[in-house]
Structures are given as C-alpha cells and as structure tokens.
Request: fold
Amino acid sequence: MNIPSELKYTKSHEWVRFENGVAVVGITDFAQSELGDVVYVELPEIGRALAEDEVFGTVESVKTVSELISPVPGKVVEVNPALANQPELVNSDPYGAGWMVKVEVGGEAQGLLSADEYAATIE
Reply:
C-alpha cells in the first residue's frame, strides 16, 4: 500500500499536500483500492467555502458511492478538470493526476495524521 510520507491524512482516507497556503486534496491509495473502479467524481463549485470535516463531493465506483470529506477549512480555488472525463485517474494515480480539489486554507486543520499514524488506522 502506497502511503507517501510527505503527505498528511485523515481517518476518512483523504490525503492533503500543502503548497504555499493551498491544500491539494485527494483520496488515498487504500481508499481507491477499497472502492474499486471509479466511474464518476462529483466535485464542488470553485469559490465554495468548506469547513473542516464537511462533505464536499462524492466518488462513485462500480461497487458503491463514497463521500469526500474536507481535511481543512477554506475556499475551493480549483477542481481537477481531468476527472470529469477520466475518473479512473483516481485509481491509477491517486496521489498525482487523480487529485480532486485545491483549497485555499482558511484556518488550521485539527485532525490530520502522519503517514505512520494513517498506516496504523488501516492495518
């Protein structure tokens, strides 16, 4: 299972990478493998304000639909346009091309886990 050490994680299986006050958010390799083949990703409108732990979208797979939970408070400044036509990027490259949203961070996130802490939750 791929769990990059430079990222932060949530118990609900989202990852976050901080880049100059912006949080890039996606779902983990573990989450995509549990979901199976992703067929649709619903993402929020640009400009939407998010609270930490707020549902901001869904991922639909051949098996189920899963909610996306914001790991940070802030404002959506970008969504991944590639996922509209290629939702399978979530499966093939969850930490790269399969990212979901970029959020301008509006406060400190409380519940983020290190890679080791996250790994312990899925063992």
Observations:
- Residues 8-108 form a domain with the OB fold (Dihydrolipoamide Acetyltransferase, E2P) fold (CATH 2.40.50.100).
- The beta strands are 8-9, 14-19, 22-27, 38-42, 49-50, 55-61, 65-69, 74-79, 101-105.
- The chain has three helices and nine strands.
